[in-house]
Here is the input.
Amino acid sequence: MIKKFLLLSAVLLSSLLAGSFEDNIKNLIEKQTSAKVNVVNSVDLKDSKNLKMVIVEVADGSAQRIPMFVTSDGGTIIGLSNIFFTASKADEDIVSKAIDETMAHNESGQKEAAGKLIEALSPDQYITLKSSAKNPKTYFIVADPNCGYCKEELRNIEDRLKTHNVNMVIVGILGEDSQKKAAYLVDKIKSSMSEKDKLQGIKEVFSSNFKAPAKIDTSKIAATTESLFKTGAIRGVPYIYEK
Here is the structure.
């Protein structure tokens, strides 16, 4: 009976210490940054005494995870940088695994979040180009008329249309001129137009010599741009999402 009591006490003490460690991390991060986090995982380093490899997840709905070093009492946090050297192969493997898992998680979460933003758009916020393929999937391409990489992407549009419908989401993140060009394009392209005429109109506005109208209502483009870029899930153009 005494052995069972001692064993139970040891388990309870271990749980309390683990809870205190996580609470210390969360409280310290919140105090220093005002950000709320949850501890996803913590692993003791093999040869670096009193250090743990810890992964926290930001509790803001983004599900972004951050790897860091933490002292065993949870009282000191050391952020990871591009410079990390250790003579311990075991510790190097622990850190590398944590970083790889974190990056994979964040990339997957970012794609999911971006997809939700794009799929929430209404049909009047993008230009639909239909494929002649049977049962095609759909690409959404978020593009700015003044983006050089977007112009390059547009050169491949016919190849994409061989297998996919393409929904062009025209935004203006590169200044007022971009917003004016985007607004002009969205106003000009009508759903009743042929795919050839739609594509010709898009290429016209994306050409280097196209001049935006001096006066045009850009409020609709501004709203679309804001809805896609405000969370940081989409960070640049062109952004391509397959539905």
User: Anything to note?
Assistant: The two ends are 61 Å apart (CA to CA).
